[in-house]
Amino acid sequence: MNKAQKFAVSSRNKNKAVINKNIFQLSIITSALLFSGYTLAYSETGQLGDKNSWESQEYKNDWGLAAMNASSAYALGYHGQGAKIGVMDSGALLSHQELSGSRFHAVKAKGEYGSTGMRYPQELGGHYEKGQAFDVTGDWIKGVNDTHGTHVTGTVGANRDGEGMHGVAWGSDVYVGNTGATDSNNYGPYQDYQYFYTGWKAMVDAGAQVINNSWGTNPRIIDAGKTVGPDGGNTSVHLPVDTTQQTEYEYFYFKKIYGDNPSFVDAAYDAVKDTNVVQVFTTGNRDFKNPYYRPLYPYFNPQAEKHWIAVAGLKQTADKTGYEIEGMFNEAGNAKWWTVVAPSRYIYSSVVDADGNPGWDTFSGTSMAAPHVTGAMGVLMSRYQSMNALQVRDVMFTTANRYNPDGSLYKDWKSADGVPDERYGWGTPDLEKGMYGPGQFLGKFEYQLDAVPLDVWSNDITQAALDQREQEDLAWLADYKANGIDAGGDYNLGTDFVVNDGNPDPTSHIIDKEEAKKWRQEYYQKRADAIQAKIDAGLYDGSLVKTGEGSLVMTGDNSYRGGTTVKQGSLFGFTESFGTADVNVNGGTISVLNHYNDQFTQKGQLVSNESHKANININDNGTYLVTAGHNVNVGNMTLNQGAKLDIAADNIGQLKDVYLNDNTVQGTVNADNLADNRAKSKMLANAAPNAVNNDYALFQKEVSVKDNTITGSLSKKADTSFASFANNENGRSIANVLENNAKGQLFDATLPMSAQDLRHTYQSLGSDMYLNANTASVVNVLGLTRTVKDQAIGIGHGRYANLENSNARIWMTGVGQWGNLDYGYSNMDTDFYAALVGAEIDVASHTKAGLFFGAGSSKYKAHEYGKIDSNDLHVGAYGVSNIQNVAAINYGVTHTNQDRDAKRTLWVGQDSGYNSSSYDAKITQLFVEGAYTQLNNDQYSIEPYAGFNWLHVTSDNLHEQVGNMQFTTKTDNQDIQVGTVGLRGGYPFAAGNVNLALKGDVSASHLFGDNRPEAMLFLSDTGEAKIRGGKLDNLFGIGLGIDAQLNKSTTLGVSYQGQYNSDVNSSGVNATLKINF
């Protein structure tokens, strides 16, 4: 019977994460990614390409998903798979059904406190002592933690299982840490550096790319009378942070409390600096215009900005038709350049009660907003697998949304398009727009596109934020240079309130003015240095550097000013898509298009508007690729020394037209001014400057330069067909199917291949590994049968153990055979092992009959073609009859069943499919052999013999795949006949009291009938090809052994046997124990 295929995984060659440039127009099948890492017993209703299908009741139970357009990302196949997200909070109940499974990990943190303090100074609780040990994991701890972390973790990544709700990044791996406290943990200057550094660093070491920090509450002050914030919130007992001077006070307060030691917020930075990890912090739940120090940290420490995200709160409007800032929570303020706003009111998620019982409930706060952002990062990281988290952060910022569903701006949004707002920051993460590439470059964006072969960016990439940032930064810097630290105005030293920090001294929080001046000077200088470094590096103009072997397509109308550099791989785009500065191709390839059919992000046909023209410099080792069917316009085009030109097809339809109809396709590049400096190169002085590397197997490429135009053409190569690249019979069979049928996925995949890739495809698909495994099994079964026959007939007196009145025997044999087959097109090493147990009885004076059964294993190693491991069962019956002491006839039947597990990687060009399959093979055999025994006597035995075997070989069909292409191998049944002649002999002798016999055997066998295995290979929807294995015809056999009579009833024999021809080398050793009874 056919057994179920275990699995098949397709991948791109890891050493060549590159699109075959012969076909530029590609569609990446995201369905292969859809359920990776997601193995719940839940029937998913969502369908690729249909965002509405993802909006189940479970989805709708968190309105924040719709506010971020999460279903658009899910419909493209991105839900956090492959992303690793950290959550530092009050633990999480990882037995909750929403948080259970292999995606969730409790991170362990172990060490000693480095200071003495209180977690809850406002409550005089949560004491810890310097030197006190801690050893915690992210699992919720009864009596220590509260439900906060369980709720937050659910919003990040709860299971999509049809119940309750699901997280934003429901396919991500989630790493949970533990604050060792409840949400009342105070994030003022009260926490221990060592504890939090250890916890955050453990997450980083575990692989977390972004870490959510919703935990804690803000510093408190003694109530001195009711105060309200700008939106009417009660701020009476909360440390105020409305003005820059007030936020500056909190910074001073941290400096005062920690002294020369780093703070726990420094620990957040220290844990991620020199990495690509991002920390996410809440702005706070108070009605103030600025965040608290924790999210505002980069304002005072600009080196940390690229690692920081601050999150303010968003709520639904009263009629639930739009969104607006939650004014009762801290706003972006001075942190606007790294702040986003996210759903924070009435968020439904997983919870745990004080006794550890799971459930669901609705909470509000920026604590609920942050995990929406962190989850959004996870979804975007699954979309942009070649970006690090710092770059994904920029994508999230620059594609954030500021509009209601009806198209109106959020209430009170003040900033210009593309510029962060004082209240909202960048806006709300938009997982629809975020699928289409960055909206801006926030400096130099170096994109190493290696993890996936293709990415497509269709968003317009502008300069708006950088221009505004430059204006603000330069104004601040000019003020500082003119006025020094006095530019900051008066100091808030804490004299008009008392901090509720558990210290009985009501003045302990007050800052000395001289200290305040020193600390302002420190952070002012940091800010000034950071701004100057940006100026010096030109980072106020966005730029793109393309590295990595993958291909990037840009179709936006892009206005970034810092230039584009191609170092590796391929960059395709419209003439208006490369910004306003020059494009320098220093390696890799660039091609300008006038249209693009986007199947990657499903935007369909996109067309260039030529709002401005690209200026392109092709430098040494750079290539300009003309895309057939595209007639494009550029500004200045310079071909410098070492520049190369090439042409490729836009789509498979073009190549079909050329190949099947013998047509020619062209593409042109028309420049306003083209300077060809290549002829000036000494290297090219004797070479044709327009020579191209023809990496098509089937097509001829031509590129020419005349005046200001580059023209490329593709035509069919003369006297060339698919079969021209086949090196053997199986390859030719596959090639003929491609040539004659000219259809289907395999035809489309092979048509644009290089000669090398086409040969490799034939070699892989045409491998006869499965067929030659059957041939190897025939050789092994013949060897096993020889062992059974040898023990049955006996030759030489050492074979016989005499026991009066004995007419029955049992025997046991162990067999090991090792060999190599060089048949057909795949060299194969084989190992064969078997243990047999048999019994025989004399049924007449000159006839005995026996039965045997056994088990063993076979291993077939075809090297680069794959391997097969088999568990074998053997059964059989045999008989021996002596005729008048003149002749002996032995005869019998055997059956071998092999339960095979096969593993091999199939290649179609540079795409591979790793396949693991289980199937059965069976060999049934009838044998008969006659020997002339008249020459035997007491001194020696000599027996000429002749035999005949008939073997019937069957094996199940095998189903394999590469990507979406299905390949089925249907092996033909074989009926093989074997004729054998040979001579065997024995010489008995004694050693002391032990009777021994030497024995030997030589034979020659001829195999005929279906002695060459064949199969039909179904080539996806392209057709079927006959493939053949090696022909097994003649074998030469040799055997040597010795038998010993151990006592009157027991005989032991050890022997060697081999089978050989020019393509087979099989050697075996067996040992047989025979007992009379």
TrEMBL record:
Keywords: Hydrolase, Protease, Serine protease, Signal. The keyword Repeat does not apply. SUPFAM superfamilies: Autotransporter, Subtilisin-like. GO terms for biological process: proteolysis. The active site is at D89, H148, S367. Gene3D superfamilies: Autotransporter beta-domain, Peptidase S8/S53 domain. Residues 803-1077 form the Autotransporter domain. CDD domains: Peptidases_S8_Autotransporter_serine_protease_like. SMART domains: Autotransporter (SM00869). InterPro entries: Autotransporte_beta (IPR005546), Autotransporte_beta_dom_sf (IPR036709), Autotrns_rpt (IPR013425), Peptidase_S8/S53_dom (IPR000209), Peptidase_S8/S53_dom_sf (IPR036852), Peptidase_S8_His-AS (IPR022398), Peptidase_S8_Ser-AS (IPR023828), Peptidase_S8_subtilisin-like (IPR050131). One of its GO terms (molecular function) is serine-type endopeptidase activity. PROSITE patterns: AUTOTRANSPORTER, SUBTILASE, SUBTILASE_HIS, SUBTILASE_SER. PANTHER family: CEREVISIN-RELATED, PEPTIDASE S8. Belongs to the peptidase S8 family. This is Outer membrane autotransporter barrel domain protein.
